[in-house]
Structure formats: C-alpha cells, structure tokens
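Fold this sequence, please.
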Amino acid sequence: MDVMISLREATWSMHLRLEKRLSIKDRFSELACYRDHLALLESFYTAAETEWSPWLAPVLSDLSARYKAPLLGRDLAALGGTPILGAVVPTVTDSAFALGSFYVLEGATLGGQHLLPLVERRLGLTAQHGASYLASYGPEVAVMWQRFGAAVESHCQTAHATGCAIAGANATFQAMENWLCGAQA
C-alpha cells in the first residue's frame, strides 16, 4: 500500500485544513445547518461522479456501488432540502489523477463512520432517514476501502502515476474546501 501511504502523507495538511474549516460540530449542531451542508456535498459529489466516471469505470469494477450522490440526494429530500448547482471539481485527464481525486471522496466514507453517531445523537437522524450518506457501505466500509486501495496500488505503480494521483487528491481537497467553505484570500 505504498501509493495509499504516499497519498495520505502528501494530502494530510490539506485534509486537516479542510477538517478545521468545515467545523463539523457547528455544521451538525442544527438540522438546518446539516441540511445546508448536505446540499453542498450533493452538488460536489454529483459533479465529481459525473465528470470522473469515464476515467474511473475502467479501473474500478464496482464504481456504481461507490456513488454517494444518490445517497446525498435521498438524505437531502428526506430533510426537505433543495439541491444546489454549481460545484466545480478538478478536470481529470487520466485514470491516476481520477483515482487520486476519488481518494478524497472515498476517504470521507471512513469519516462517516465517526460522524453518524454524532448526527444520530444531536439531530435524531438515522442511516434510514437523513444520514444514509454517512452510513454508506454500512459494515462493508473496511472492505470497500481495501478494494479501493488495491485498485490505486494496481493502477498507480509508476512514480509518474503516483504523482498524478497525489495531484488529483490535492486538487480535489482544494476544490472541496473552496466549495464547502469558500475560497480563502
């Protein structure tokens, strides 16, 4: 898992910055704030999954099972939210860059495991109502992450491909931060 380790190390500071700027405790403190957050995420995931699918489908045989936009749309509808349009995601030009970009979205499923209990406790939501995105993959989170890691390792074996994957992940963290939190001056 050398490429996955390289991805984690190369994006760690961006990950921490996004996490800090998101201020999840505030975003998940009231139903309206959580609903607004879902609307932003749904737009980002819809754009990403649409744009990146042509590059990811050949390298991720289970890609359709990994789509989160439908879960976000369902959660948003359950909470009476309205979709938002306009998210801008990085332009992908090869499968390594796409895998690096998708690394950010797939990594969020790991965080969802920790956030689901918070949403259940604070907002009274469940995986069946309003929090299906956070519960994505259910008990299969570790298996899905391992499969994704194996695909990354298999398709990013060269230094060039690893560099492209890292560039994709960093670009996605930046685009996500800009969309969810606003661009920093």
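The mean pLDDT is 95. The helical segments are 2-22, 24-27, 31-56, 63-66, 69-78, 95-123, 141-155, 159-181.
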